[in-house]
């Protein structure tokens, strides 16, 4: 455990007010390039770091993406073997972004649902590189062309939380993915926090575990960033592009500790609400410990 270093007078520090914030539409390539050039003109050193890291990410993708396509289209269909390329891509991409990942404990084997707190889009790189799992993500990500392509290549499940009529179909999709990959990551808060608090877990996301697939377990996970990482959390008043710039333009590296907690069987709980409550209690307790005993609300 690392010592807590207070940066604010109150605990937890207040979140920015997102009232009235409306994210702009996905920019066209021309608009994105123009915005990038304006940002570079304001911060040349940061722009150079962003460019270096972006080129490194492109180089990693140039190796891993074609290999993933070939593997999924040939090796998996012929022999049924899971692809290692998505995991290698995530691990290498996290390092390219300046993230030093240190596991604490070990991920469970197959047939596991990882239940994690959520700070940023980089969580997928962090957990993907450690577990090789597929993800459940909100459908807004599907509107970003490049990011959507990479997510679909790893069989990401996109859910529309406002579509209550489509819940049955989303549960069926999660069950189908799990039957093929046997490792699935859920971010049950439904949005990003700042690493100092824990939002309520959305019990409907646990519906696919009632009844649970045979032999499946839930493993709570805590993504525990250092203070630099917490300051890079993607909160509700910042676009994805702005957060990516802030993260990639930052000098140096930052550390993330991934705590794999004790797994438990869904059969040990009465229903999906009890599952969500048990997983949240485990995550909250460990997160509080990483914050020097500070309460996690």
Q: Specify the overall morphology.
A: globular
Mean pLDDT, nearest integer? 88
The helicity comes to 40-55%
- Describe the strand arrangement of the main beta sheet, using strand numbers: 1-7-6-2-5-3-4
Question: How would you describe this protein?
Answer:
With 297 residues, this protein is of the alpha/beta class. It has a domain at 100-290. 43% of the residues lie in helices and 13% in strands. It is built from nine helices and seven strands, in the order H-H-H-E-E-H-E-H-E-H-E-E-H-H-E-H. It has helices at 29-42, 44-79, 85-96, 122-131, 145-153, 167-181, 227-231, 240-248, 272-290, and strands at residues 99-104, 112-116, 134-138, 157-159, 183-186, 217-225, 254-260. Strands 1-7-6-2-5-3-4 form a seven-stranded mixed beta sheet, sandwiched between helices. Helix 5 (145-153) links the parallel strand 3 and strand 4. The longest helix is centred in the first third of the chain and has 36 residues, at 44-79. Residues 1-6 have low confidence and may be disordered.
């Amino acid at each position: 455990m690392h010592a807590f270093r207070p940066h604010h007078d109150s605990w937890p520090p207040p979140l920015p007010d997102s009232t009235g914030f409306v994210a702009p539409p996905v920019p066209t390539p021309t608009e994105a390039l123009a915005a990038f050039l304006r940002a570079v003109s304001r911060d040349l050193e940061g722009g150079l770091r962003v460019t270096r890291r972006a080129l490194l990410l492109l180089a990693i993708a140039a190796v891993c993406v074609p290999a993933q396509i070939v593997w999924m289209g040939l090796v998996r269909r012929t022999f049924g073997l899971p692809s290692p390329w998505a995991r290698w891509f995530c691990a290498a991409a996290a390092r390219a972004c300046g993230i030093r990942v240190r596991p604490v404990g070990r991920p469970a084997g197959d047939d596991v649902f990882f239940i994690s707190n959520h700070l940023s889009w980089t969580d997928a790189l962090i957990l993907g590189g450690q577990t090789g799992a597929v993800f459940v993500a909100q459908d807004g990500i599907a509107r970003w062309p490049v990011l959507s392509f990479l997510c679909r290549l790893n069989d990401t499940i996109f859910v529309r939380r406002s579509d209550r009529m489509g819940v049955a179909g989303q549960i069926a999709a999660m069950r189908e993915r799990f039957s093929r990959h046997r490792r699935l990551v859920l971010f049950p808060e439904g949005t990003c926090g700042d690493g100092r608090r824990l939002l309520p877990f959305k019990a409907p996301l646990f519906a696919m575990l009632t009844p649970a697939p045979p032999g499946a377990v839930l493993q709570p996970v805590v993504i525990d960033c250092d203070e630099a990482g917490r300051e890079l959390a993607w909160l509700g008043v910042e676009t994805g592009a702005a957060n990516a710039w802030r993260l990639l333009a930052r000098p140096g590296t930052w550390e993330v500790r991934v705590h794999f907690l004790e797994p438990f069987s869904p059969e040990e709980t009465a229903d999906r609400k009890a599952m969500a409550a048990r997983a949240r209690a485990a995550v909250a307790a460990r997160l509080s410990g990483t914050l020097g005993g500070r309460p996690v609300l």
